[in-house]
């Protein structure tokens, strides 16, 4: 844990980190908050669900965590600006931004309503970019910051029947890479986390329940707890990218890059039927 030691000894790093978590009220976001609360971080909880957010705030406060709940729709630019203002008014700094909010979008592409396409892009990608834009100037002044973007393995290879969802997650990966290259020298790291199927709290839970089928083994899977642990590690070490999945998908993506047509055929052979069921699931 050499990185953690360096972090602790740096004069620009506060003793107690202030962390914004979007999509905090449920699933992976909630588990991230529960895990970080044990580290005595100060948390700014952001999500659309007021009731769930209030309940989480009460739970964390009872455990001794200093936190505030800010009902926020990440698709609303005004709400994002207000979120940053509330965080700064309360804590005076923002050390970590976790862009976790996201929605799934699996359907036959030419049957997707336009409003669903726009909502997916605004929630999964645009909101993260705009919120980061508000936070980066604060981190520049501090000389320290961690930006953690929750993408997906779908961003590494866009799934059939998930073109819009995959595009938003691929966009987050590229956004993180560009941001990291620009800001690394001023003490701000950007990390993208790409989970596989998170079977106990990710966006795929609804799909699995609706289709009645488990994900094929070679598609890979993980748990929300493992993703939350990866977020904690990213705060400490600031790596460029973390793919959280078993079996490991990075060798598959490398093979596809070297042999694009053959790699595509293999991926489609494993994933096509499952994603077709997801796209035609009953609402």
Q: Your description of this structure?
A:
The protein is of the alpha/beta class. It has a single domain, classed as NAD(P)-binding Rossmann-like Domain (Rossmann fold). It is 52% helix and 15% strand. The protein contains 10 helices and 9 strands. The protein has a 7-stranded parallel beta sheet, sandwiched between helices. The protein has a two-stranded parallel ribbon with strand order 7-8. Helix 4 packs parallel to helix 5, helix 5 packs parallel to helix 6 and helix 9 packs across helix 10. The N and C termini lie far apart (46 Å).
Give the gist of this structure:
This protein is 52% helix and 15% strand.
Q: In DSSP terms, counting alpha (H) and pi (I) runs of 4 or more, how many helices?
A: 10
Radius of gyration (Å): 19 Å
SS class: alpha/beta
Query: Helicity range of the residues?
Result: 40-55%
- Indicate the CATH class: Alpha Beta
Number of strands: 9
Task: State the major sheet.
Answer: 7 strands, parallel
Characterize the quaternary organization of these chains.
Answer: single chain
Give me the CATH fold name: Rossmann fold
**pLDDT under 50 segments (min length 5)?**
1-11
Q: Could you say what the CATH architecture is?
A: 3-Layer(aba) Sandwich
Provide mean pLDDT, rounded.
Answer: 89
Total number of distinct structural domains: 1
What key attributes describe this structure?
single chain; alpha/beta; 7-stranded parallel beta sheet; two-stranded parallel sheet; 52% helix; disordered N terminus
């Amino acid at each position: 844990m050499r990185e953690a030691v360096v972090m602790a000894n740096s004069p620009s790093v506060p003793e107690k980190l202030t962390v914004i978590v979007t999509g905090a009220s449920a699933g992976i976001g909630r588990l991230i908050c529960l895990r970080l609360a044990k580290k005595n971080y100060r948390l700014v909880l952001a999500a659309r669900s007021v009731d769930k957010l209030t309940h989480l705030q009460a739970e964390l406060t009872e455990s001794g965590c200093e936190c505030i709940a800010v009902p926020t729709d990440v698709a609303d630019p005004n709400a994002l600006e207000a979120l940053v203002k509330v965080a700064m008014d309360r804590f005076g700094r923002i050390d970590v931004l976790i862009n976790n909010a996201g929605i799934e979008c699996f359907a036959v592409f030419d049957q997707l309503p336009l409003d669903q396409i726009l909502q997916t892009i605004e929630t999964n990608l645009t909101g993260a970019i705009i919120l980061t834009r508000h936070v980066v100037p604060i981190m520049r002044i501090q000389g320290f910051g961690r930006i953690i973007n929750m993408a997906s393995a779908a961003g590494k290879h866009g799934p059939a029947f998930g073109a819009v969802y995959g595009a938003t997650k691929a966009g987050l990966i590229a956004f993180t890479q560009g941001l990291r290259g620009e800001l690394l020298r001023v003490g701000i790291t950007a990390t993208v986390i790409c989970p596989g199927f998170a079977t106990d709290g990710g966006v795929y839970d609804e799909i699995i329940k609706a289709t009645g089928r488990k994900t094929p083994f070679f598609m890979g899977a993980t748990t929300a707890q493992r993703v939350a642990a990866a977020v904690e590690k990213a705060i400490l070490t600031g790596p460029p990218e973390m793919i959280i999945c078993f079996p490991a998908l990075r060798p598959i993506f490398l093979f596809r890059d070297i042999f694009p047509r053959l790699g595509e055929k293999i991926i489609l052979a494993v994933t096509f039927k499952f994603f077709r069921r997801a796209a035609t699931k009953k609402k």
